[in-house]
Specification:
By secondary structure, the protein is α+β, with helices and mostly antiparallel strands. The chain folds into two domains: about 35-285 and about 525-545, D-Maltodextrin-Binding Protein, domain 2 (3-Layer(aba) Sandwich); about 295-520, Dipeptide-binding Protein, domain 3 (Roll), CATH 3.10.105.10. It contains 17 helices and 20 strands. Strands 1, 8, 9, 10, 11, 12, 13, 14, 15, 16, 17 and 20 form a twelve-stranded mixed sheet that branches. A hairpin with a 3-residue loop joins β18 (about 455-460) and β19 (about 465). The relative contact order is 0.16.
Length: about 550
């Protein structure tokens, strides 16, 4: 993708992974323009019907796949819609869904021919075919929704070249294109139920081909019923009732009282500790799994003294991830030593190899080379979203650790600011350093590199003037990095592509525009008796697998 801007919409969560409920303020569903029915399924009704009641604090703004760009919407859309490709559960391996095989790709990497599944119908009874898939992808690209540029930046055209054959032409070769086609928003939608046109969205409806159909959507609940004419394997339960709760405290209480079958996203660390203890004593089930997002520290390479690579390397050496995980995260994360999560085979712990954790001797050596002493200390402003308790505590922990270990050579100054202000100003170069997190748009290593450190306009001398690293606040520019990113995006050979990613990660550890910090874990808690409750790093909580047992 030749993305030219990177506004705060790209951070799907504006706060840390365990305080996602704060985002409800920004993405709240309006109480207007909703279906006439406002009834909600009671837990008691669900308990006797084989339906699942799922409690969450994430409030979906819309269920229109062409405009949905938040976790709250994605968690629901993955049960309602089918895409051309999806993932084998528990892996990052792509497999066909509405396609019947992996695409046939031209030698230049620009043309994709995709055979489609026959015998599929939409929730409104409309037959699925290549024309319907062409309509769906054109609508996603052309309607101007929040995620539209994911496809419009790379797709030149899409055409039904047979009743069950789709041909897509790209503007430039893009190796992870099949992974992009697995993005929830590119689900097939009924041409009879939707329109193509800028801004023509339907936030409270969904008509696709998935295992469930939408029967109710309001501010407090979302109801999904099993789609009887689903082409694939039928769900293991009789439907899903999402209950939208107002706080993590309410979600916590819903587990303790049994008001929901499953509670998922989001709890604070102490609540998770308590719920895990309850699970260990047999009161309910607990599942955990590494997520596919990364928390990291951005360093502004254009601001002095961070324009000096040795200073950035010193900061990387100071960071003690294990201490942060213990004190702040209550061991509910894994230390991250690369921007690419460990779930990908190409991930390499280059920051661990180069700096370790809390390597004070190395930090002092680098700081001395850069001219910093007790009399001339490094002063580092460390900014974070003020709504994020985890990031505030992380900044304070780093400040305290530096004070204890570096004898005044480094003075870290935590600075909180409201999220809209932070994300509105980060691309202006105001902040020295910022604590952030990144949720990927699609599951490919490229989506942890290109949107964070690529640059479309700039120079080694002046830094990045336009592009991802400018919008991310690092202003990092490297000719070699841009070359490597271009190579991995076009390379079709997995082995050669892995070699390119290794060099990318080594270069990031050398240049240090960003410092990876942690990879959080996801948690779900559920009543005993539920079967096949699992978390997946990509598809998160596959609800269609879960049954209530006997």
């Amino acid at each position: 993708m030749n993305r030219r801007s990177f506004s705060f919409k790209r951070w799907r969560s504006l706060t840390q992974f365990i305080c996602l409920f704060c985002a409800c303020f920004f993405f709240a569903v309006s109480c207007t323009n909703q279906p006439a029915t406002n009834s909600t399924a009671s837990p008691e009704a669900s308990a006797g019907s084989g339906r699942l009641t799922v409690g969450t604090t994430l409030k979906p703004r819309t269920l229109d796949p062409a405009d949905a760009y938040e976790l709250a919407s994605s968690n629901i859309l993955q049960s309602l819609g089918d895409t051309l490709y999806t993932y084998e559960l528990g892996t990052d391996q792509i497999k066909p869904e509405l396609a019947t095989a992996m695409p046939e790709i031209s030698e230049d990497g620009l043309t994709y021919k995709i055979p489609l599944r026959e015998g599929v119908v939409f929730h409104d009874g409309t037959p699925f075919n290549a024309e319907a898939m062409e309509f769906s992808l054109k609508r996603f690209s052309e309607n101007g929704g929040k995620p539209s540029s994911l496809l419009s930046d790379v797709m030149e055209s899409v055409e039904a070249t047979g009743e069950y054959e789709l041909t897509i032409k790209l503007k430039n070769a893009f190796a992870p294109f099949p992974s992009l086609l697995a993005f929830d928003g590119m689900a097939a939608v009924s041409p009879k139920a939707y329109e193509i046109g800028n801004g023509k969205f339907q936030p409270t409806t969904f008509v696709g081909t998935g295992p469930y159909k939408l029967s109710e959507f309001n501010a407090n609940s979302v109801r999904l019923d099993v789609f009887d004419d689903y082409w694939g394997e039928k769900p293991a339960n009789q439907g899903i009732d999402f209950q939208i709760l107002t706080s993590s405290a309410n979600l916590f209480n819903s587990v303790q009282t049994g008001a929901v079958d499953i509670a998922y996203q989001s709890f604070d660390p102490d609540q998770i500790v308590s719920l895990k203890k309850g699970a260990s004593s047999g009161q309910w089930q607990a599942v955990e799994d590494p997520s596919n997002n990364i928390s990291y520290l951005v360093l502004n390479t254009k601001q002095k003294p961070l324009d000096n690579p040795e200073v950035r390397q010193a900061i990387a050496a100071i960071v003690n991830r294990k201490l942060i995980n213990e004190r702040v995260l209550r061991n509910q994360a894994e230390p991250a030593y690369s921007l690419i999560p460990t779930g990908f085979d190409v991930s390499k712990p280059t920051f661990e190899e180069a700096y370790g954790d809390g390597n004070i001797a190395k930090a002092k050596e680098l700081l001395a080379k850069a001219g910093f002493t007790k009399e001339n200390p490094l002063k580092l402003e460390l900014w974070y979203p003020s709504s994020s308790a985890v990031r505030q505590q992380t900044a304070s922990t780093l400040q305290e650790y530096a004070n204890q270990q570096l004898e005044g050579i480094v003075q870290i100054q935590p600075q909180g600011v409201e999220s809209p202000t932070l994300f509105g100003n980060i691309g202006k170069g105001i902040y020295q350093s910022v604590l952030l997190d990144w949720y990927p748009d699609f599951s490919d290593p490229d989506n942890f590199i290109h949107p964070l450190v690529s640059c479309t306009k700039g120079s080694e001398a002046n830094g990045c003037e336009e592009g991802a690293s400018q919008s991310q606040g690092s202003f990092y520019y490297s000719d070699r990095m841009n070359q490597l990113i271009a190579q991995e995006r076009t390379e079709q050979d997995p082995k050669k592509r892995a070699e390119i990613f290794t060099e990318i990660q080594e270069l990031l550890a050398q240049d240090v525009p960003l410092i990876p910090l942690w990879q959080p874990k996801e948690y779900a808690f559920a009543k005993d008796g539920l079967e096949d409750l699992k978390l997946d790093p990509i598809q998160r909580l596959p609800l269609w697998q879960i049954s209530k047992g006997n």
